From TrEMBL:
GO terms for biological process: arabinan catabolic process; xylan catabolic process. InterPro entries: Actin-crosslinking, BXL, CBM6, Cellulose-bd_IV, Fn3-like, Galactose-bd-like_sf, GH, Glyco_hydro_3_C. GO terms for molecular function: alpha-L-arabinofuranosidase activity; beta-glucosidase activity; carbohydrate binding; xylan 1,4-beta-xylosidase activity. This is Exo-alpha-(1->6)-L-arabinopyranosidase. Catalyzes the hydrolysis of a non-reducing terminal alpha-L-arabinopyranosidic linkage in ginsenoside Rb2 (alpha-L-arabinopyranosyl-(1->6)-alpha-D-glucopyranosyl) to release alpha-D-glucopyranosyl (Rd). It is not able to hydrolyze alpha-L-arabinofuranosyl-(1->6)-alpha-D-glucopyranosyl (Rc). Residues 734-804 form the Fibronectin type III-like domain. CDD domains: beta-trefoil_FSCN_BglX-like (cd23343). Belongs to the glycosyl hydrolase 3 family. PANTHER family: BETA-D-XYLOSIDASE 5-RELATED, SUGAR HYDROLASE-RELATED. It comes from Streptomyces chartreusis. Residues 823-945 form the Cellulose binding type IV domain.
Length: 945
């Protein structure tokens, strides 16, 4: 054991608690060294023997960006398993591989930026693949399981230190660094904060990362919620790491502060401890911190607070006790256990959406036609590692049914491109060393987009037939016969050089634009058109080539030919995770790309026994009416194809469940920036329409019965028990789900809300009793009248079943609570954001550091309603706190305007508040309506007698 001696400073003494060791180390650091700690890339302090440190290692579903690693299903697929034990084991495997990879490459960090716990509120959000569910309870349960696996189970030392992304209310990529999410207090507390809170309270997370967006007019990187909520949930030091470039956004794109010194100081004081900005170059951040210190915006004590939180994480990771770190020698990498776990996860993530006439599982002697753009693909996303092993649906079906029983048609159009001079676009042959795949079909990691050592495309009398893959919304990729995608390197030349579309800026996507009697070919990555020059084909700002598109074979024709000869057709459709919906890019529609719809129709017309397998990061609005069977799975990582084949063959009964609502039409969706899930009736909690497939939905090859639902209250909890029996003839998993709804609420409450769930495996005929203990606080809602949680006394229906709509059992419990009381407006007044209903109003920041105000969102006019305001024996005066120019109309009787208070702005400062007073007469309990006319900000309304 390391002891404290004259030659061993206390921070090296393992006998001391971490807090005292950190105190000692802080006292030894110079001011410049402390400043250096504030950047993502912290330099070494050689005089103290302290190594360099980097915050941030992506590990969402496997170690990402650091080369080969085990690749598990996307996060949304892990959410679809509804299996917390499985997800915990995956987190454990990922953290072990992180440690093993770090042992041979010190660029691999132990502070992992995972998981993403943003809720899947809106299915068009481009990063939906990164989240777990639209339900905050399910999200936090899965996130807690993953972080526990990442953390490890040692009481003192952590295997990795997970950071949750992205704080807070972040569901849009369009304008993500400048748009504000208007989040009313009920939605904030009941929905968005809830997804983070349970995971933080579980003690398995090291911190959070703020999101790029603003919430209620204030950037998340200066959010008071970090102090007012996050840090009150635990007594542990939490590390807050900025998102990349976000500190600079505070000035550069958001214009929230005038100088970077002000912005950096405000972020640090709000609770940001590590600044991820300008890559490895820390000079700009450190200069801004020094400037803030020189201007008196920060003190050294403020720096100490942030550095302490960083050091707390580093001590927990065992950095200062390497000989006692239980994970120091972890070398588990690509083990048989990890490979089996990847397959188990991929199998459990498959959701059977429809299975009429018992078409699935497939009979062993089925002659199968496999069709579609994703049938022979194993797609990766932005947060994937490099595949060591791969399995496509086609490969999995070949293995399971035999290649002689499976026919394949990709369904892409085969085209030639002819120039205006009559020559054809030509792809030079690759040398033997440039093959796309090595032995056994393994990917060649050397074949990357951006290579300049391959010959550029040329033109000539003999053209190359290209596979034109239409991904929808006018976006297409072009692929050479040997499987290489056309890509554009930094020199602007077009080469067949990419194994897959990918990268932060995708260089493999194009658009065909009608022009004269042909088409221009625009490269989306650069925005320039393809031109033909003497030295090869390239993209350029001028001189675009006009191409004639010659279709050699339509994809539909190949599909019809193959489908007609099969017993069953499997159409594999979906998305490429780098195209039309990803980080920086939201989707525009739920519809399946038109080309894939055409392939599906062609297959169905040729063979009614057509199964649709959607492999996608998102829900789609597909019409299942004429399809006998439909499945969905996320991109399932390295074992995706094997898993899908085993489910189709009946080796595994599907038991995945939808973690989000699948809507039938774009018209069912709110605006992407409407974050009011209550007022906008969003997600399964409030949606009043008919979904295509409901939250929690998923079928099985077995059948299950539910019986004997019983409830009782004791020790502050509701105890729920019921029995589930496998009434089918095969072993299968069932996901039993428990919901509740308030029977007669006085405020809008969810139609039903998930209380608990359990995934269990049952043999044929096996019966098992399930027991759940739910804290009574789960029935509370945020009461804006009292600015706190309240449980209404009365009846609550408890529902048990196989999905949010497939309810098998129900009972009613009567719970005690606190009865509703009128708003005490004489004591509290009306904080403007604590409305019950609104129309045309957005919540904005009252000041740059704290508080909320409201303003008319569009058209300069908005309405607010506050219910049951208690004026006692009567009031005669109303006071409003406002900034800006406009009029506040107050109507306490709910009828004609009783008072109109007009503000005339004295300047351009939106935070220059003033108090206006007018006469008003009101008594007793009544609703208050307030109208906002003009671009003013209303912070508070008060009344007096």
């Amino acid at each position: 054991m390391t002891a404290h001696t004259p030659h061993t400073p206390p921070f090296r003494d393992r006998r001391l608690p971490f807090a005292k060791r950190i105190d000692d180390l802080l006292s030894r650091l110079t001011l410049d060294e402390k400043i250096g700690f504030l950047h993502q890339f912290t330099p070494a302090v050689e005089r103290l023997g302290i190594a360099a440190f980097r915050t941030g290692q992506e590990a969402l579903h496997g170690v990402a960006w650091m080369g080969p690693a085990t690749v598990f299903p996307q996060a949304v697929g892990l959410g679809a398993t509804w299996n917390t034990d499985l997800v915990r084991r995956i987190g454990e495997a990922v953290s072990k591989e992180t440690r093993a990879m770090r042992a041979r490459d010190d660029r691999v960090g132990l502070n992992v930026w995972s998981p993403t716990v943003n809720l899947l509120r809106h299915p068009l959000w481009g990063r939906g693949e990164e989240g777990y569910s639209e339900d905050p309870g399910l999200t936090s349960a899965i996130a807690t399981a993953y972080t526990r696996g990442l953390r490890g189970d040692h009481p003192t030392y952590w295997r990795t230190a997970p950071v949750l992304k992205h704080w807070l209310a972040h569901n849009n990529e369009t304008g993500r660094d400048v748009t504000s999410s208007s989040v009313r207090p009920r939605v904030l507390n009941e929905y968005d904060l809830r997804a983070f809170r349970a995971t933080v309270e579980a003690g398995a997370t090291a911190g959070v990362m703020p999101a790029y967006n603003l919430v209620n007019g204030r950037p998340n990187h200066v959010s008071p919620y970090l102090r007012e909520h996050l840090r009150t949930w635990t007594d542990q030091d939490l590390l807050v790491c900025s998102d990349a470039g976000a500190p600079s956004n505070l000035v550069d794109s958001e214009h929230y502060f005038d100088t970077h010194e002000e912005a950096t100081a405000a972020a640090l004081l709000a609770g940001v401890d590590s600044f991820t900005d300008h890559g490895t170059d820390s000079s700009l951040i450190t200069a801004r911190v020094r400037g803030a210190l020189d201007r008196g915006l920060l003190t050294e004590a403020d720096l100490d607070t942030a550095v302490r939180r960083q050091l707390s994480v580093r001590f927990r990771l065992g950095e200062f006790d390497p000989e006692y770190d239980p994970y120091a020698l972890t070398r588990d990498f690509d083990t048989q256990t990890h490979r089996a776990l990847a397959q188990e996860a991929a199998e459990q993530a498959v959701v059977l959406l429809k299975n009429s006439a018992g078409l699935l599982p497939l009979a062993p002697d089925t002659r199968l036609a496999v069709i579609g753009l994703l049938a022979d693909e194993c797609k990766l996303d932005w947060y994937s590692g490099t595949l060591i092993h791969r399995s496509t649906p086609l490969e999995g079906l070949y293995e399971r049914f035999g290649a002689q029983r499976v026919e394949f048609a990709e369904g892409v159009d085969r085209v030639l491109l002819r120039t205006s001079a009559g020559a054809f676009l030509h792809v030079p042959e690759a040398d033997a060393g440039d093959e796309v795949r090595g032995a056994g079909g393994a990917l060649d990691p050397a074949l990357l987009a951006g290579r300049t050592d391959l010959p550029a495309l040329t033109t000539g009398p003999a053209g190359t037939e290209l596979a034109l893959v239409d991904w929808g919304e006018g976006v297409l990729t072009l692929r050479a016969p040997d499987g290489r995608y056309l890509s554009v390197a930094e020199d602007g030349r077009v080469r067949a050089s990419a194994d897959q579309p990918g990268g932060w800026v995708v260089q493999e996507t194009f658009r065909l634009e009608p022009h004269a009697n042909g088409h221009l070919l625009r490269h989306i990555g650069t925005g320039h058109h393809v031109s033909v020059a003497a030295d090869g084909v390239r993209v350029a700002e001028s001189g675009p080539e006009v191409f004639e598109l010659i279709v050699v074979e339509r994809g539909e024709d190949a599909v019809a030919r193959v489908a007609a000869q099969a017993d069953v057709v499997l159409v594999v459709a979906g998305n490429d995770p780098h195209i039309n919906g990803r980080e920086t890019e939201d989707r525009t529609t739920l519809a399946l790309p038109a080309h894939q719809e055409r392939l599906l129709r062609a297959a169905r017309a040729a063979n009614p026994s057509t199964v649709l397998a959607l492999v996608s990061a998102y829900p789609y609005a597909v019409d299942p009416a004429e399809l006998p069977a439909v499945l969905w799975t996320s991109h399932g990582g390295q074992a995706a194809g094997t898993a899908l084949a085993r489910v189709l063959a009946g080796d595994v009964s599907p038991a995945g469940r939808l973690p989000q609502t699948w809507y039938a039409d774009d018209a069912d969706l709110p605006d992407l920036l409407d974050y009011d899930v209550i007022g906008g009736r969003q997600t399964y909690l409030y949606f009043e329409g008919t979904p295509l497939f409901p939250f929690g939905h998923g079928l099985s090859y077995a059948s299950f019965s539910y019986a004997d639902l019983a409830t009782r209250t004791a020790d502050g909890s509701l105890h729920v028990t019921f029995a589930v029996t496998n009434t089918g003839d095969m072993t299968a998993d069932e996901v039993a789900q428990v919901y509740f709804r308030a029977v007669d609420p006085t405020v809008p409450r969810p139609r039903r809300e998930l209380l608990a769930h359990g995934r269990l495996r049952l043999e044929p005929g096996e019966r098992r009793e399930l027991a759940f203990e739910v804290p009574l606080s789960a029935f509370d809602f945020w009461d804006v009248a009292r600015d706190g949680w309240r449980r209404e006394p009365g009846a609550y229906e408890v529902l048990a079943g196989a999905s949010s709509e497939d309810v098998r059992l129900r009972t009613t419990v009567v719970l005690d609570g606190e009865p509703a009381a009128p708003r005490p407006v004489l004591r509290r007044g009306l904080p403007a954001a604590d409305f019950d209903e609104q129309s045309g109003v957005a919540i904005v920041d009252r000041t740059k550091s704290s508080g909320d105000a409201v303003t008319a969102a569009e058209g300069g006019s908005g309405e607010l309603l506050y219910r049951d305001c208690d004026f006692g024996d009567g009031v005669t005066e109303v006071t409003v706190t406002v900034a800006g120019e406009g009029t506040v109309e107050v109507s306490p009787a709910g009828g004609a305007v009783s008072a109109a208070l007009t503000s005339k702005a004295a300047g351009s400062d939106p935070y220059d508040y003033r108090t206006l007073t007018a006469r008003i007469v009101a008594e007793g309990v009544r609703d208050v309506r307030i109208g906002l006319r003009g671009p003013l900000r209303l912070a508070h309304v008060g009344f007096s007698g």
